[in-house]
Every structure is written in C-alpha cells, then in structure tokens.
Amino acid sequence: MGTAGAAPAPEEQQPPKRTLVFTYGTLKRGFSNHTLLQELARGGDASFVGAATTASRLPLVCGPYRVPFLLNLPGAGHRVAGELYAVTPRGLARLDELEGVSRAHYERLPISVDLAEEGCARVEALAYYAHRDYADELWRRSGEKGYPEYSHAVAAGYVRRKDRPQDVTFLEQIRIFVSSQS
Fold first, then answer.
1. Partners of 134 in the beta sheet?
2. Residue ranges of the Gamma-glutamylcyclotransferase AIG2-like domain (predicted)?
3. Catalytic (active-site) positions
C-alpha cells in the first residue's frame, strides 16, 4: 500500500579544516622529528604545501642540545627559511604535544610567510615559537645573533630527546643553558 520513500542522502562529510603550519627546525624534511609529519601525512592529517620564508625578520637560535627556537622578536634576526604544511586539528594536537605547548616549551602563534612557489604569495600560518618566559634570555645567550635557516651544519651536535638526561626537565635544561656562558 504505500510507496517506499527514497532513502535520505547520506550526509557528505566535509574534509577536516586544515591549518597552515610553518616549520623551521627538526620537523623539516631530513631532520629527526620529520617522521611525525610523515606519519600524519600517511593518516591524511598533514600535507606538504611548499618551501616558505618568514615575511619579517625573526631570530632563529639554538638552545640546549642544538634545539632550534624561533623567537617572537620581529625585526631582529633574519627572514627564516622553512617549510609550510597544512594540518588537520588532529595533526595540530600531535604537533602541540611534540612541541610541549601545554608544558610552556613552545607557544603556537600566528606568522606571515612567503611561499617560494606560487609567485611568492604571502600567507598567514602558525609557528611554534620559544615560549615568552625565556625567549629574551635565549636571544641574549645567542649573542643576539641568529640563523637564516636551521641547516644540517647549524644542527650539528643536535641531541635527540631520548638521548638527553631524563632526570632534568626540558625547562630546567633551558634555564641552565641560558644561565651559562656562551
């Protein structure tokens, strides 16, 4: 007796919104933490956008164990070369975890970058900066000199997290580093 109604169309799932993230250190291709971005890419949570350079000059310095830190001190330092990735919210949460955002190691803040391709288009992204609680001290400890790129030569001597002393927190390691002579 009645007519069968048409089944409702399945809701089309929208792909997760992606956020652009500028990487300048160990997350770049060829460096130790890039494996995380590769894992995220395999799961559909990250994709490489292209090479990019900061739109303004910013200090890029090395802290304890040659760990790279971008400092939120616009006008100092160099235009820093790095890589741009598009990441999902799940990918961003994994990057936050790696970068110690909840532990005040780094803070995720906006940044303007120029893409190397695309006619040098300027885009807005996020980057992981040294936490404001010690950024000025890192800049002073570096002699107020930074690098235009975290290259393999700059990274020479980098110590992976698993190979660092485990009885001292990373924040304690930073405080020891900034209080020591260069």
1. none
2. 21-134
3. 99
